[in-house]
Amino acid sequence: MKQVFRSTFAVIVGWVWMAFAAFNAVDLVVRYGGRSSMVAAAVLAVLTALVFLTCLRPALVLSEEGVLVRNPLRNTFVPWRAVDGVTVSHSITIVSGERKIRCWVPHVSARERAAVTRKAGVPGRRGRFETEPVRSKGERAAAEAVAGRTHADWVAQQITERAEAARRAARARETTAAPAPTGAPASGTAASGTMASGTAASTAAPVPGATASESTASEGTASTGAVPSTGVTASTGDGTGAGAPRTTWAPTALAALAVAALPTIAAFLV
Questions:
Q1: Most buried residue among 127, 150, 171, 195 by CB atoms closer than 10 A?
Q2: Bridge partners of 96?
Q3: Other residues' Cβ atoms within 10 Å of the Cβ of residue 247
Q4: Contacts of 167 (CB under 8 A, 6+ apart)
């Protein structure tokens, strides 16, 4: 299941600005006045690029493979097995080994944190007697579970739960595909097929007159054929290789900067 988290206020502000910028861009084209119009177009392009990078592009995407952190200029993909922890202060920080990936959204302001903490307190009373309706045990447990939590705290919990579920599923797959014990080589030899059986026979009972090097080579062949059946290398999630976080420059961010640079350069040349 794919989940996308953004800042609702930032998205609204971004699209309002985009409409404003489009209207002004059309006006500048219709009423072109030389250098002054080019300077205005350059300023409008730079501001529009900044609004796009800071309001419309940032997002936090949770997919089946991992979490994608879309910050203003770069994208960072963290597989679920590489998520070691999630912390929340003013923003969400994903810990993966020695790396800490800070998420641009969702953001927690000091006012929002104070408001949530205040609502988590004991409800007030009116007059001399309590007038609040009596809540059931389940309602009180649900209220205590969400007390003092912001939207960012809830998103961090979603990341933690999905990372733990992915690790449990990976451990279950590794347990199912675990190799045979070292003390029972016969099972591994039987699974290798008809050609491996001949090799096992030569290892168990060497032909008279065969040299020691030939016997050693046959043993090495049998042990080499048993390695691919383990499958441990492909499923490692220790923060290296395929399981490590990957950070790349965002093509849309670079395109926005390039579009903003064109009218700026043109304004200096005119």
A1: 150
A2: 99
A3: 14
A4: 80, 81, 237
* pLDDT tens string 121-171: 645 444 444 445 555 666 555 555 555 688 889 999 999 999 999 989 988
Residues 6 or more apart in contact with residue 56 via CB below 8 angstroms: 10, 11, 14, 15, 18
| Residue pLDDT, tens place only, 160-179 | 999 999 989 988 888 888 66
The pTM of this model reads 0.66
Q: Whose CA is closest to 106, among 49, 154, 161, 50?
A: 154
- Alpha-carbon distance 198 to 201, whole Å? 5
Contact between 206 and 215 under an 8 Å Cβ cutoff? The reply is yes
- Kindly report, residue by residue over 209-231, the tens digit of the pLDDT: 444 334 433 343 333 343 333 33
First to last CA, the chain: 52
